[in-house]
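INPUT
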Amino acid sequence: MKCNVKLDPWKIILDHYDEHEVEIAESLFSIGNGCLGQRANFEENYSGRTLRGSYIAGVYYPDKTRVGWWKNGYPEYFAKVLNSTNWIGINVTIDDEILDLAKCTILNYYHELDMKNGVLTRNVKCRLQNDKEIELNAIRFISMAQKEVGAVRYSIKPLNFDGNITFESYLDGNVVNSDSNYDEIFWNRIDEKSYENEGYVMMETKKLPFMVCSYLTSVLTVNSEKVDSKPNVIEKDKFVSDIYSIDVKKGEVAQVEKFVATTSNRYSENTELLKKTKTISNKACEAGFDALLEAHINVWSKTWNTCDITIDGDVAAQQGIRFNIFQLMQTYTGDDSRLNIGPKGFTGEKYGGSTYWDTEAYCIPFYLSTCNNEVARNLLVYRHNQLDKAIENAEKLGFTDGAALYPMVTMNGEECHNEWEITFEEIHRNGAIAYAVDFYERYTGDFQYVVEKGIDVIVGISRFWAQRVNFSKAKNQYVMLGVTGPNEYENNVNNNWYTNKIATWTLKYTLRCLKKIKEEYADYYNTVIERLNFKNEEFEKWNHIVENMYFPYDEELGVFLQQDNFLDKEILPVKDLNKSNLPLNQKWSWDRILRSCYIKQADVLQGIYFFEDEYDMETIKKNFNFYEPITVHESSLSPCVHNILASKIDNADKAYEMYLRTSRLDLDNYNNDSEDGCHITSMAGTWLSIVQGFAGMRVRHNHIEFNPTLPDNWNGYNFKILYRGNNLQVSVTKEGTDISILEGNDTIDVVIKGESYKLVNSNPIKIQ
Amino acid sequence: MKCNVKLDPWKIILDHYDEHEVEIAESLFSIGNGCLGQRANFEENYSGRTLRGSYIAGVYYPDKTRVGWWKNGYPEYFAKVLNSTNWIGINVTIDDEILDLAKCTILNYYHELDMKNGVLTRNVKCRLQNDKEIELNAIRFISMAQKEVGAVRYSIKPLNFDGNITFESYLDGNVVNSDSNYDEIFWNRIDEKSYENEGYVMMETKKLPFMVCSYLTSVLTVNSEKVDSKPNVIEKDKFVSDIYSIDVKKGEVAQVEKFVATTSNRYSENTELLKKTKTISNKACEAGFDALLEAHINVWSKTWNTCDITIDGDVAAQQGIRFNIFQLMQTYTGDDSRLNIGPKGFTGEKYGGSTYWDTEAYCIPFYLSTCNNEVARNLLVYRHNQLDKAIENAEKLGFTDGAALYPMVTMNGEECHNEWEITFEEIHRNGAIAYAVDFYERYTGDFQYVVEKGIDVIVGISRFWAQRVNFSKAKNQYVMLGVTGPNEYENNVNNNWYTNKIATWTLKYTLRCLKKIKEEYADYYNTVIERLNFKNEEFEKWNHIVENMYFPYDEELGVFLQQDNFLDKEILPVKDLNKSNLPLNQKWSWDRILRSCYIKQADVLQGIYFFEDEYDMETIKKNFNFYEPITVHESSLSPCVHNILASKIDNADKAYEMYLRTSRLDLDNYNNDSEDGCHITSMAGTWLSIVQGFAGMRVRHNHIEFNPTLPDNWNGYNFKILYRGNNLQVSVTKEGTDISILEGNDTIDVVIKGESYKLVNSNPIKIQ
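OUTPUT
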C-alpha cells in the first residue's frame, strides 16, 4: 500500500480519496514548528481508519516498561511521545447529518502540503447521505513565527441547497496514545472553561508534572462577514466547545476560524499558563488569519534561503529532497537545548523517546550546514546537560569514576530502552556523541565549546571505553566483548570493528583535546582537570589502550572484519538470495538472521565513512565491495552511507541505487509503515547523500572540497545546494561544478576534484 | 526469609505461625498425585498473604504472549499451568466471627507433611477476637490410589465456650492465575448445581476446550456421630456450597469431611464428566475417609519400597533427599504419556509449561532407577508424540525436510518460550532428547523402542543438527554459530563446545542405530527408511559432519573451550570476587554477566558428565578444575553435575559442598523464591548426587559399577539406596560398600572401585 501523491517540486498533493491511504497521508502531510506538531488529521468527524495525533515537543509520559523477561538494569519506563489536546477539531452538521467523509460520496478531493510555505490545505466536494452537496475548504498551519500558535480556517459552501450548518469548534483533551503499553490514559484534567467564542483545556500528565494549556478563540463568518451567531457553549471533562448554528443559502460560504495557543509549563510558570495562552490566542485572532499566515510564510522563506537543494529534470527527486528538508526543519528548530529530534518527529508516536544516536551520526551535519551554528551547538548542549544521567546510567551497569554511557533512547537523559542486546550492548552510540563534538569543532572552529562543555562529555565517554575493554591474555591486546554494532542483525559479538574503532578514536581524540587545552587554553586547563577529577593514570591507561587495541582484519581479503570470526559465516551475496526471503526481518527468525552474513546497515562501512581520511582508496573499495553486497539495507539509515562511499569510489550506479532507496522512503512508503509516521532522522541521510555523496563535499578546516559524481542514469542532471556554513551555492552538472558565494566572505578556498581554487566574492564571481 | 521447618527424617513440620512464612510453607507442604495437586493453602478464610493454587495435570491456558520487542518466530502464547477450582475450601464462623488465622491469637500451631504417607495435617489452637478459643484439626490428602479423589477432614472444638459454629463447605471456580500476562480470567462457566451435602462446578478453559468438573460430597459429624443438619444450599456463578450451622458445647468436636472428585475431559467424554465425578465422589464418601486414606498410604508404602534413600546420622540430609523424592513421585507417576514434569510441579504457577530439557537430562535417570521402565518410556513417548510439532517448530525457523527442533518450554509440543537467545538458540535441548533415548536403551536394553519410535525422534533431531551447522571456509571445518549453551550466562555464542559435542554425538548415535536396525532388525529396516523418507545422502552428509566438526580447545590449558574465544575473557575465580557481587543475576546487568567469565551452570562439564567414558581422568580433572572455580551455580541444575564429577575425580570436599547446595534448596529457601513453588526438576539432581555422585553408581549393559566417595565432613556416614532396576540395595559407609539383592535376580555383576564381584541372591547374600 502506498499513498499515491502527485509529483510536484514544492508540494505534496493527493488528488483523490481512498480510505486506505488516509493514515499514510496523515503522516506525510504532518505539520509542525519545532514546538508543536501534528498529523494531518481531518478537522471534522471521520469514522474511517485514522491515527489522531497532536504532539508538544518535550512533553512525554514515562509509560511503565513492558517486557517478557526482565533483565537486571532495565529501566522502569519507556518515555512516550505524548498525544495531547486535539485543537483542530470542528464537528460539522449539515441539515442534521454529521459530515463524515467516510460516509459521503466524494465528488472532488484535493489535499495539499505546500512545503515552501508550510501550509496544509484541503478542498473537498462531496454529497452527503441526505443528498446535500457541499464544498469544504480547510487551510491550516502551525506558526513558525509564533511558536505557540496554530490556526485553522475552515469553510463549508452548500452547492445544491439552502440549509442549516452547525460548526462545533472544540478542544478535546480526551485523547490516548495508540502505543500505550497498558492502555493507560496519560493525562489528568486540571481545568477547562468554555465561553462564547473562547475556551480552554488545561491538563497535566500523570506521573510527571507537565502542565499544558490550549486556549481557543473562534470566529464565525458568512461570505467573509463576521456573524454574531450566539454559540451554544459546551463544557465537559477535558473538553470545551462552541456550537455555531447558521442558515445559509446555496453558494454562500460559512466559515469558522480557530486561533489556538498551546504551551506547557516548560516555558511558563503553571500559574501563568492560562493567562499567557489566552493573551496569545486572543491577539492572534485580532491579528487575523491572513496576517499570521504571512508572518509564518516569511519565516519559511528565510529558512529555504539557506537550505534548499534544487534538482533540475527529476521532479521525484526534487520533491523527495524538499520533503526531507521540510520535515527536518519543522521537527527541530534548534532554539531550545532541551529538545531533540525524535525518530518520528511530530508525525507519529511509534518508538517513543526523542533522542537516538541518529542525531549525532546523521542530523548534526545537516543542521550545521543549513542553520546557524547555534542549532547544532544546542544539540551538543543537550547531551552535555544530560551527562550526569549518562554517568548514572553507566553506574547502573557497573561502571565507576565518572564513566558515562549515553542512553540508546531517551527524553530526559534516562535510558528508556529495554532490550538487553541493544540497551546494554549497542554502546557504539556513545562514540557517535563524541564524534559529533569533533565534527562540530572541525566545522565551526569553535574549540571554546570543547573547553567549556565538550571536554566533560568526551572524558566521560572515554572513561566508559577504558573500563569497557579488557586485556586479553590470549590476544595480548585489548578486546571489547559482548557488543552490538550499528548492524543490529548481529548481537552480543566480540570485537565489533566499528565499536573498537570509535572507542579507540574517542580516546585518541580526548587525549588530543586535553593536550590542546593544556597547550593553547592553559588558563582553563587546571579548571578542567579539577572539574573532571582527571588523573594522570588515565592518560597512561588510555594511551596503552590506543596503542594495543585489537582490530579484526583479514589479510587475504584485505578487509576489516565486522567482528571476531565473521568469516566462519557462509558468505552469499544478497542478489543470490531468493527474493522470497526479503525483507529478512519479516521472513526469517531472529537466530537465522543473526547467524547469516547479512547486514542490516553500514557497520565497518560506517567507520570508514566517519574516518574516511584514514583509509586509502583501495582499502575503501575492498571493504565496500566485500560488505555492500551482503547488506540488506533494512534500516532507513543504511542507504545514505553506502551512497556516500559509492560516490567516493566512483561507483555511480550503486550510489544512484542507494539514493533511490533513501530519498522517497516515506513518500513511496518503501518500508510499508509510513502510516505510523515518517522516518525523520533518516531524512538527514538523504540530504547527506546529495551533499556528501553526489557533490562529494567535505568541509575542511581551511577549505571545502568537492568530488562530484553524477550517475549516468541520474535524471537530475543539474542540482544546486544551498550551503549556509560558508554562504555558498554549489551547482553540479555533468559538465562540472560551479560554486558561487552568495554573500559575506570575500574569498573561500575550494578544491574541486583535487584542483585548488580560490573563490572571490566579486561581481561576477571569480575563480582563481 | 526462610520457613523454619523442623528436622525430621520423614516429616516436614512447622511448629509455629509466622505470617511471613505462610506462602513458603504453602509451597513446601504441597501435595499431589500426578493428576491433581495443590499448594498447602488453609481450608478456611485467610486474609494474610497467600498464593492459592489447585492444579490439574495437563490442563493449561494459552496465555497471550507478552514481550517488549517482538521477534519474528515468537509463539503467540505461553502455556500457563492453570489454577483451577478451589475444592478444599471450608469457611468457618464461630458465633458470628469468621475464623481467620491472620486475625486470631495463635495459642498453638502445628503443620505437618508426612512424606511417608503423603498426608497433610494441621492442628491449631487459637483465640478469636470475640475471645472464643478453639482447636482446629485438618487432615487432607490427594489419593494415590484413586487419582480423581481428594479428601479433607476438618474439625473445630470449642475450648472455652458453648456456641454456634457454621461450616461453609464449598467449591469455587472463581480463581485467577497470579502469573496471568494480561490479568485475564482463564475459565468460562459451564454449569454448577448445589444440593444438600452435594454439589458440583463445571468449567471450561477459554480458547481451548478443556472441560473440568469437580463434584463434592460433604458429611457433618459431631463427636464422630453423623448429624442430620439441613444445610443452607448456595449456588452462584462457578460456586456451590452447603452451609451447616450447629450448636456445640465446649469440648465437643464439630467436623466436616469433604470428598471431592475432579477430572477433566482428557479422561472422559464431556457428557460423562458430571456422572463420573458424582459417582466417584459419592462412592468415596460411602467408603469413608479412613478407608480412602488407608488405600492411599498403601500406594505410598509400595512407592517408598523402591525409591527410598536412607542416610544415617544426618537428619537434615535425610529429610532433604526424602523431600526431593517425595515431590518427584507425587508430581509425575508415569501412567499418562501426555503428561510431563513441570518445573514447579503442583507447587506453583511460575514459568508455566510442563516440559523443559530438565526432564531428559535430569529426571529420566531418577524415574528409570526408581520405577518400572514404563514410567521413563512414557516420558520418551511424550516426545515421540510431539515430533510433528517439533518439525513444525523447526520449519518456522527455516529448517526443512523433517528436521525437528523440540521446544524450550511446552505443554503440547508447541513452543511457548519467547526470548530469542533461549527460544531460538538454546538448541542443545534437542540433544538431551536424543541422549535420553540412548540412556533409556542402555539402561533397559529395550532397543525395540528405538526401532518403533525412538529412531523417528533421533533422525528428526539429527536432521536439525545437520542443517544447523555450516561449513566454515576459514576453519575448513563445520561450525555452529549463534547458540546459547546450558550456561545461559552466555548468549548467541559460536561453537559452544557442549552443543557441538551433543550435536555430533546425536549424529553418530543415530547412524549407529540405523546400522543396528539394518543389521539386527532387518525386518524393520525398510519400513523405518520409508517412514522417515531417509536418503542415502543423509548418511554421507552426517558422516562428513561427524568427521569434520570443529571443537574449540586450548592446547596449553588442555581444556575444551566453552565457546570460541572464551580465553579473551578475564578469568577470575568466583572466590576472588567480592561477595557483594553475588548473586550475579541480581547484582549485575545482563551485559556484564555475559562478558564475564562466570558460568551459571555446567556447560563443558555437562558434556563431560554425559560422555564421561570418552575422557580420561586427567582431562576430566583439568576441565573441572578450570571451569568449576568460575561457576556461580545460579541454576538449581548446576550443583548436582558438579557433585557427580567432583566425586568422580575424588574431590570429596567439593562434592560435599555441591551436595549441600542442591539437597535443601527449597527447604532452606536458598534461592529466596520458594514462595513461588518448589524446584521440582532439580530435585532429581539431588538424587543423582547421591546415586551417581557419592555412590558413584554407573549402570552398564552387563553390570553395575560403584566408585563411592564419602567426604570427610559427611555427617551421613552410612546411606542406603533402593535401586529398582536390578532390585539392589546399596549401602555405602566409610568402611566400604555393601550391596544386597532384595528380590528377583539370582546373580548380579557389580564392580566396586574397580574390583569385580558377582552378587549371589542367597541367604545370606554371597559376594564372589
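end of record. The mean pLDDT of chain A is 95.
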